[in-house]
Amino acid sequence: MDGIYPKYPFFVAPYRIPVTSVEQAFNRLQKAVGKDVEHLYAVMTARFHVALRPSRAFYMANIATTARVVAIMRNMITVLRRNGYVSRRRSAYYSHQSDDTAADGGGPVGVAPAADSCHGGEAGGGTGDGDGGGVHGDGGGRVGELGTDSAPPTAGGSGSGCDGRGMPPVGGSGDDLDGEGVGGAPLAAGRDGGGRSFGVSPPVTGGRGGGARAGGAPPALSGGGGGAGADGGPPAAGEDGDGGVDAGPLASTGSGGGTGGILGPVPSSTLPSVSALADPFAGIFGHMLAAWGRATDAV
Amino acid sequence: MPAAHLSLPLLLLLQPPAMFSHTALLGPRRRAPSEIDDDDNEIVVALSVQSIRLHRPAAVFSLVRRARTGGSRRGRRQNELRDFRSGIHNIMRDYIGVHGLPPIYDEADFERRFRMPRVLFQRIYEAAKDEPVFQQRINATGQLQAHPLQKSVGALRVLAYGEAADRAVKYVRISGSTIRRAVGHLTRFIVQRYQSTYLRKPTIDELRVILARNKERGLPGCIGSLDCSHWQSSACPKGHAGAYQDRHGTRSIVMETICDEDLYIHHFFFGAPGSLNDLNVLDISPLFSDVCAGTWPPACPFSINGRPRTMP
């Protein structure tokens, strides 16, 4: 918060006149953390230009709906991508989190054991079949959409726990099979697999998933506190280089880094596939829409 | 219904009346005129027109309420022959691939144009394409109308580029009014479908994750950063101009947001008039009332300097 907000107990106020180095450091830290939300406004408007320009809608309800859509889509993209974010990689919390989740099972919505989710991540890095994983990813995602799932989007934590484990990005088909067996966990693999079955950029997606995981590998990057930011970046990139792929942390291409979004305990085999429903009007473009439908299984 | 339906092509009217339903319009079940007697013709035509009158208005207007636009009325400009098929072909050629060929544009291009990963677009499309407004319709002459993919792409162009609705007309080959309608319905659909998942208060489990991450950054007990931003409204009514006028002299609406390190939005409050400052916006925000009423945040323990604390 900045100056205008009152001194409520649920607000963290900076020191008005910081004197000691501790107070100055605190103010600096608080300002740095508070910059997140300012960053968000820039990203939201850059992402969806409808929010960049003045709204042309007349009714307030329409403007509010559009703004909410921008926020929702922004969140959806974040859930898809957050495992590849820089902040995740340097996070000490996520390098320890897999152990915590495995230990007490009460971690942040750790649905699947962390070890298994590591395998799920591996599947994304491998060059094996992405189709099976795609189906599983389908199930997990749709559960979240319908809201029948108690696992919140932030449960990406459980997925990203495998980032910190430092598993090498060398998933084979055997790892694929392991990943598919654990319900919603291999969601990351599913998303990547979906991209591949779409037949667009076959060699890139899988490799990027592996690279993103390699980035989080060395626990040494998590230097504790916010100070590790500058240090965390370059070595992470170096790890990506070892993985043999370019995994820019905020890479705008592909479904990099897996999803790790909404993980659900519901086995995906019990969920109906939307694309399985007959589209009575699809006949005219049926031969083309078939590919689309197959690809969307992974969504 | 007006007399427009009486001018249906005769080929369609020659079908047996029992088959003359909505679905029968699709199929090419046509009988050669020589098979039908002249007496039958009149009966068939009369019954068909009657069945259209009985069924078609109910089927259309109960699902989709649309304003009566110009188009095929006497004295108005006739509808453009837009060639919907070429629009859907354009999209599929560019981003899906037709005739066994790979798509022209790859994932990076898709994301640059649609401002979202392709998987996300597919997910929204799959969810929205069966909505009544997005379904492919058949007009009075039995022609297939715009495909849901065209409407989705057109609507997302508007959102991604912030452009006018009729800007994408040449590419997706549907009218600007259809795109405009699709934008409205798509936005409402997304809010209604995904709001409860992607734009809600964090649960206690999520709160633990948030607290742990912020603790690691050096601020234990910190949920996120709160800030307000203004979105300018260029079509604000004169009567509201006073309330919505912000400090820059333009009309705007305030959004109040809490987000975390990943820029995931945990709280989003939109709609306060632009004349309010951040403090006043907070006062009318549901966040503030929830915190004051003690309904949120849930009691999530944390510790500062080794001293255990709970949420207020």
Structural class designation of chain A:
mainly alpha
Q: How many distinct beta strands of chain A?
A: 0
Q: How many strand elements of chain B?
A: 5
Number of domains of chain B: 3
Supply Rg of chain B.
27 Å
Q: Report the helical percentage of chain A.
A: 40-55%
Order of helices and strands of chain A: HHHHHHHHHHHH
Major sheet description of chain B: 3 strands, antiparallel
The N- to C-terminal Cα distance of chain B equals 63 Å
Proportion of residues in extended strands of chain A: under 5%
Rounded mean pLDDT of chain A is 51
Q: How would you characterize the overall build of this protein?
A:
The complex is a heterodimer of chains A (about 300) and B (about 300). Chain A has about 300 residues and is mainly alpha-helical. Chain A has one domain (about 70-295). Helices cover about 55% and strands about 0% of the residues of chain A. Chain A contains twelve helices and no strands. Chain A is globular. With about 300 residues, chain B is mainly alpha-helical. Chain B folds into three domains: about 5-65, no CATH class; about 85-195, no CATH class; about 205-310, no CATH class. Chain B has helices spanning about 10-15, 40-65, 85-95, 105-115, 120-130, 150-160, 170, 175-200, 205-215, 240-245, 280-285, 285-295, and strands spanning about 225-230, 250-260, 265-275, 300-305, 305-310. The termini of chain B are far apart. Chains A and B meet through helix 1, helix 2, helix 4, helix 6 and helix 9 of A and helix 3, helix 4, helix 5, helix 6 and helix 8 of B.
Helices, strands, pairings?
The complex is a heterodimer of chains A (299) and B (312).
Chain A: H1 21-47, H2 60-81, H3 86-89, H4 92-104, H5 114-125, H6 131-146, H7 156-164, H8 173-180, H9 187-197, H10 202-215, H11 229-243, H12 286-296
Chain B: H1 10-13, H2 38-63, H3 84-96, H4 107-114, H5 118-128, H6 148-161, H7 169-172, H8 176-198, H9 204-217, E1 225-232, H10 241-244, E2 252-259, E3 265-273, H11 278-284, H12 286-293, E4 302-304, E5 307-309
Antiparallel strand pairs in B: 1-2, 2-3, 4-5
Helix pairs in contact in B: 6-8
